[in-house]
Hints:
With 505 residues, the protein is of the alpha/beta class. Helix content is 38%, strand content 20%. It is elongated and about 80 Å long.
Amino acid sequence: MIKTILRKPVQFTGNEDVVVIPLFEGRRDLKGPAKKLDVLCRSGISSYIKTTNFKPALGKTAIIGFTQSKAPTHVMLLGMGKTSRLTPEILTAAGGNASRTLKSRGFKSCHLLLDESFTGESGVGNESLYSFFKGFALAHYTFSLKSGRAGVSGLRKVTVMSDDAGTVDAAIKKGKIIAEYAGFVRDLVNRPADDVTPAMMAEEARSLATDHGLECRVMDLKQIEKLKMGAVLAVARGSRREPRFVSLHYNKGTAARNGVPKVCLVGKGVTFDSGGISIKPWQGMNEMKGDMAGAAVVMSVLGAAAKFELPVEIIGLLPCVENMPDGIAIKPGDVITTYSGKTIEIISTDAEGRLILSDALTYANEFKPDVIVDLATLTGAVIIALGTRIAGVLGNSQDEIDRLVAASRTTGESAWQLPIDDSFKEIIKGDISDYKNFSGRDGSTITAAALLGEFVGSTPWVHVDIAGTFWAQNAKVPYQSKGATGFGVDLMIAYLESLAAEKTK
């Protein structure tokens, strides 16, 4: 993690390696500390802007070198685009662009100038300023298992220069925490499936619980069998790696004592998904090591909630299995009995996520939560519907769906509601069983969610399909690198904050 220092008041010493100045379109004149810096640079900054006709569109940067004794060695102009179009996503992208540019030029430290033209006139407040620092930190993320040890690359220290210390300091802290836990998700998802097994997921959960004061319970194969979680057992049957069912508890008992909301978060934890007997094509199957991204996000959210000390009680449930085509693996045509007692006919063994979630959602109701939210890399169809930057959201509570979609707008982690009506519930009904686990390609994101909805009862519930957003084939935005994105941590923290604020009104 990059060391961050806040300097107030804004003063220049001439020892700065590079000073970063964010600029908005339509504001060519330097003001405040930026204007004072221009004087130290003998008008070199303003002269550069005029002579090169530098336009600070989003993504544009320019680095200027100086030799004057009181001037910094370099100044970087950072394009922020138009203030009228500022969103949390644009702020995240701008922060990522600054970080990536500095890293590519080999800078080890920088000074980031956030004067009143950034924190005040632009309309960037504490509610969204943290997005800039989140993007700045995420863009520095790297993951590699290559042989040899490369030297430490990238920024090691950032000095933020601002007279608005209160707003900026809070934004720095929040942005760094969100980036830290999104990075935790990225690490888990990027690691090989031989490393991140169901047992290893349980160990990661135990370690997280120890570090954050959470209660952790891990159920092994025998305990899962004793509970008769038939769906979890069925999916795990084809693998030599035994399943684990993990529960994490934050602020246990506070809902009853203090009236805070009680939320159950359920994360799909398929540590590798071959498709089972209904085996997947080889192209892209390597990415199925990330089919446990939902469980990784839930773990991270509990850790971040503890770091933020959110006034909410959270139970995190992680059904962790590996889906493999062994000789005793479940087969199309098999009928399984779930933890709820309801039966499901297996049409495709590659529709395994909804099976393990059916047991986990039934179990979630035993905690009597105010709301259940599940996160899962559930369907490829959601990518066809919404692409790779927007998560699909469905559920049985419009209030909670609206709350989550509103949270997506404040974080830049986009979500879009898809409908579930009674016609979809009819489609998932089985011929020889209560349900079938696959109902054809038409509307399959919705039919998958409709099946999950049969196991939540009347509890308010929201399903978040992150199959499109958990992985990036390439660096589509400046704060992403190829591989895991960490999508969902910021979204869920914002959702929980909103829920807590509503409950305490």
